[in-house]
Every structure is written in C-alpha cells, then in structure tokens.
Amino acid sequence: MKPLTGIIVAIMLIPSLFVIVGSGADVKRTTNLPQENRFEKGKNIYNEKCVVCHQANGEGIKGAFPPLANSDYLLADKKRAVEQVLNGSNEEMVVNGVTYKTPMPPQVDNHEDAVAVINYVLNAWGNEGGTISVEEVKDIKIKR
User: Fold this and answer.
1) Is residue 144, in this structure, part of any structural domain at all?
2) Given 52, 86, 107, 137, which is the most exposed site by the fewest CB atoms within 10 A?
3) DSSP states along 88-104
4) 3-state SS, residue 132
5) Quick one: 11 and 62 in the same domain?
6) CATH number of the domain where residue 91 is located
7) In a domain, 110, yes or no
8) pTM of the full structure
9) CB proximity list for 12: less than 8 A, separation 6 or greater
10) Residue 136 in contact with residue 114, Cβ under 8 Å?
11) Domain range enclosing 16
C-alpha cells in the first residue's frame, strides 16, 4: 500500500511543479503578490482618508473630485501629489480635460504616510506610475 501512496502523492504534486517552473506569464502573476503587499499601508490610508471623494475605483466624482485612476494630472508630477496629500490644495486643476475647483484639505501628518498613499494610488486601478521615495520629498515643508 505504501508504494501506491507514493505514486498518488507524486501525481498530485506534478501540477504544482508546472506552477513553480511555469511560463513567464505564471512567474509574472505570482510575483505580483508581494508588490501588492508593498502598497498595503497606502491602501489602508486611501480607504480611510481618500475613498469618500475619489471613490473605491479611483474615478472620483466628475466636476467635484478628480479621478486618480488614469489621471494625467497625478501622473505628471508625483512630488506635487505628495505635497497635496500633506498640505492640501486650494488650486484649480485640470484633470483629463475637466476643471476641478473643490479644495482638498491635508490628509496625513507625515512624509511617510503621504508617500505610502501616493505610491498606492500610482499603482492602483491600472495606473503604472512607478513610485516615489521619502528621500525625494523630504524637502516638502508641512504647512498647518
């Protein structure tokens, strides 16, 4: 009976080998999981502070709150995005051809949280915006 058990176990493990060795597509799919975890802090901040205006899908509310998904304005200047999360914004902005005038209050109290949420947004909803580091924004003064 023991040799039969070994054969059954081997047969059950063969599909797992294909997943581990797999094609490039399989490797890409499995390596995306840790990257998603990289943005977990930012996702939590987004869900706590930003989702009401910019919505769970990042599409905002046209004419009131700008989209963050596929946003030409956001993707054009990561550092500006961090500054706006830190200090808010009262400036009029044009996002994907639509003008937004609604002020945004400061959302976080420190550079680390601002970078975390912006890095999440830069990589959510199909955005391929890369990342920004705390080192790159340490010169932004927090105004209150």
Assistant:
1) no
2) 52
3) -B-S-EEETTEEE---B
4) coil
5) no
6) 1.10.760.10
7) yes
8) 0.75
9) none
10) no
11) 1-36
